[in-house]
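Hey,

Quick one before I head out. I ran the complex with zinc ion overnight. Inputs first:
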Amino acid sequence: MRWLGPALIAAAAAALIVMERRRPLRRATEPRNRRDLRNLAIAAVAGVTVHLLEQRVVEPLAARAAERRWGLLNRLALPRWARAALGFALMDYTLYFWHILTHKVPLLWRFHRVHHLDRDLSATTALHFHFGELALSVPWRAFQVLLTGVTPAELRLWQQATLVSILFHHSNWGLSRGLDRALTRFVVTPRLHGIHHSMASAHTSSNWSSGLTLWDRLHGTYRGDVPQRAITIGAPDDRRRRPRPLDEALVLPFRARR
Ligand SMILES: [Zn+2]
C-alpha cells in the first residue's frame, strides 16, 4: 500500500487546483502559468534534496529509534491509536517551532525568505522551498524523530498528511465563511496562512502552524482578523515590484542582502 499515500496527495493537489480556479480567494498579480512553472522548477530541486538528504538520514534514524526504544513515545505504554495520535501532534508541534526559527534566525531566514518571495499564493507555493532550507531542516527533523520516537511508518504518515495540509493552506481556494470558520477550529486554512504571507511584519509574525491551529492559539500567535483584501502577499523585507526569476531566487540566499 506504499502507493496509497502519494496517490492521495496527487488527488488532493488536483482537487485544490480545480477549486482555486473555481473559487479564488485572492486576485493573482502574476500570470499563473509562468508562476507555476517557476514554482515547480524550484520544487524539483527541493524534491531531489529531500530524496538525497532527508530520506536517507531521517528514515533510518526513525528505524534505529524504534529498535533502541529511544524517544518519548517509547517511554509511555500507550495503545497504538493513542501513540499514533500523540506522535502526530508532537511532530506538528515541533514543526511549529521550526517555522518560527526559520523567520527569527538570520541564516535560516535567508533561505525561508525565498518561499515568502512568491507574490501570489497557490498550491504550487507549497512546493516552492529553497533546497538550502530543506537541507538545513534535516538536523531539526532528526531532533524531532529522536525526541518523539516515531516509527518510520508514523513518520511517513505525518509527512504525507503535512504535505496535504501545506498544499491546502497555500492554495488560493476561497472557502465559504462557514466552512472556513469550522475548519480553523482545528486546522490552518488558506485565509489564515495568507495572513502569515503578508508583507506586513505584524501579520507575518502569526499563524506559524503547518497543521493544527492549536499551537498558535496556545502561544497567542493565532490571527484571524485580517481581511485578505488588506494583505499584499510577499516577504516583509522585499520591496521589489517584479517577481524574481528562477536563477535569482536560487542564488539569493548566498548573496549579500538586497
Ligand atoms: Zn513562513
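The chain is about 60% helix and 0% strand.

Talk tomorrow,
K.
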